[in-house]
């Protein structure tokens, strides 16, 4: 830049000296100097005008040929133009490769712009959502009208916490026989990607499993009730031979265990197949905790110190039976897996984040590697100990589905050999203070 300025200044000095010398030879040096400088200024302005016209026409073609400082500027613009063209071609090539690769995916991908409008989608998404080429620029919710997805999309687009922790599963638009799984991921300022998967086969298999478990459990209930009745009659009558006492006792014990397992399976099947949203019962947390503590003390048979700490009584909105099941399962697990004499604390507190029910024990604890799988059906940290305690392996799976229906979640803190703390976290909208109810 400095060299260009010096060059242009030198050119100006040469023109001024030349016209002055020419003027002295003719006797009109002042007029000659003014004429020379005017021609030089006109020349600069003409080059500037040419350059401005080239810019106004969208910089089509090479920059205009000029001399001096404007020639240098034109050369710089020409080099920048070539570099920009190469980078643009590289970006177009990269975009084509991305589009070609996403076109080969079985999952659908939809790119959204401002306000959730359609910007681009791959063929798989177009097929699953029945999108046409001229649908670009329209809101996605014009094609996917499920209220759960609409809420999920707007909360993700606005960067808010989403109460749907998992992808939304819903029927395909215009085809209820196909089941889609959709998840929105935000990026940039107001842009998002929607991942669409066809999970029809998995959904049908899962439905078959649920129906099978529910039907088998229901069919087992009647014969188990009959067996339990006859066993109770034999034990109460006193007419059975003495050497039958032990077999009858074991049969009664195993029948009760099977009945408990069947009841848990039926409850789990009902939770899975019923509507996602919970009931509208108004449950006093303090009364629920006292009732659960009484049941836990009966199960413990005074082998544990069970205490209740309710910092502030609240009304929890939901299904009373399901909430009792969730609260009780945690307390009963603490009794089953705590050594005799160990303290068990049932605690409730409410804050800005919502309500928190926790059960703390001083039991065997849980290795961190097991914690992510605790809510799986029949998963046992210690299979032998679980069978001895009479557990079915379904308690935490039931808790998980109850929490899903109440928009809540569970956290676990545990140290092997030092006990565990299970905490159920309920959102603020599920709570009201008992004093203001």
UniProtKB/TrEMBL annotation:
The chain crosses the membrane at residues 12-45. The keyword Ribonucleoprotein does not apply. It is found in: Cell membrane. Residues 215-430 form the Histidine kinase domain. Its main location: membrane. The keyword Transmembrane helix applies. One of its GO terms (biological process) is cellular response to phosphate starvation. Its EC number is 2.7.13.3. InterPro entries: BphY/WalK/GraS-like (IPR050351), HATPase_C_sf (IPR036890), HATPase_dom (IPR003594), His_kinase_dom (IPR005467), HisK_dim/P_dom (IPR003661), HisK_dim/P_sf (IPR036097), PAS (IPR000014), PAS-like_dom_sf (IPR035965). GO terms for molecular function: ATP binding; phosphoprotein phosphatase activity; phosphorelay sensor kinase activity. Member of the two-component regulatory system PhoR/PhoB involved in the phosphate regulon genes expression. PhoR may function as a membrane-associated protein kinase that phosphorylates PhoB in response to environmental signals. This is Phosphate regulon sensor protein PhoR. It comes from Microbulbifer hydrolyticus. The gene is phoR.
């Amino acid at each position: 830049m400095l060299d260009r300025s010096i060059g242009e200044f030198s050119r100006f000095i040469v023109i001024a000296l030349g016209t002055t010398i020419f003027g002295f030879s003719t006797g009109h040096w002042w007029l000659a100097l003014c004429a020379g400088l005017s021609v030089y200024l006109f020349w600069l302005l003409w080059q500037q005008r040419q350059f401005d016209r080239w810019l106004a026409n969208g910089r089509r073609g090479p920059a205009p040929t000029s001399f001096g400082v404007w020639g240098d500027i034109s050369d710089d613009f020409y080099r920048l133009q070539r570099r920009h063209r190469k980078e643009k071609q590289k970006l177009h090539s990269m975009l084509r490769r991305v589009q070609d690769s996403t076109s080969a995916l079985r999952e659908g991908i939809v790119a959204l712009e401002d306000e959730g409008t359609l910007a681009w989608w791959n063929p798989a998404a177009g097929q699953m959502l029945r999108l046409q080429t001229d649908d670009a620029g329209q809101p996605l919710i014009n094609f996917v009208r499920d209220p759960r997805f609409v809420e999920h999309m707007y909360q993700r687009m606005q960067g808010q916490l989403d109460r749907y922790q998992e992808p939304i599963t819903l029927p395909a638009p215009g085809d209820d026989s196909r089941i889609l799984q959709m998840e929105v991921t935000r990026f940039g300022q107001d842009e998002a990607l929607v991942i669409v998967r066809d999970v029809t086969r998995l959904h049908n298999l899962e439905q078959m499993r649920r129906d099978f478990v529910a039907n088998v459990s229901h069919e087992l209930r009647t014969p188990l009730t009959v067996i339990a009745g006859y066993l109770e009659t034999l034990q109460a009558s006193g007419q059975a031979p003495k050497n039958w006492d032990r077999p009858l006792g074991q049969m009664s014990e195993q029948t009760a265990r099977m009945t408990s397992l069947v009841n848990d399976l039926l409850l789990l099947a009902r939770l899975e197949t019923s509507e996602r949203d919970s009931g509208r019962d108004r449950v006093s947390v303090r009364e629920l905790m006292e009732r659960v503590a009484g049941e836990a003390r009966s199960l413990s048979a005074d082998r544990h110190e069970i205490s209740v700490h309710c910092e502030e009584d609240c009304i929890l909105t939901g299904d009373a039976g399901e909430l009792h099941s969730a609260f009780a399962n945690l307390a009963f697990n603490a009794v089953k897996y705590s050594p005799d004499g160990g303290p068990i604390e049932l605690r409730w507190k409410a804050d800005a984040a919502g309500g928190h029910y926790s059960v703390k024990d001083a039991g065997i604890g849980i290795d961190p590697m097991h914690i992510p799988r605790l809510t799986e059906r029949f998963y046992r940290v210690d299979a032998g100990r679980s069978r001895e305690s009479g557990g079915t392996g379904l308690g935490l799976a039931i808790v998980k589905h109850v929490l899903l229906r109440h928009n809540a979640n569970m956290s676990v803190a545990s140290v092997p050999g030092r006990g565990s703390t299970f905490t159920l976290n309920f959102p603020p909208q599920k709570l009201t203070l008992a004093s203001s109810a």
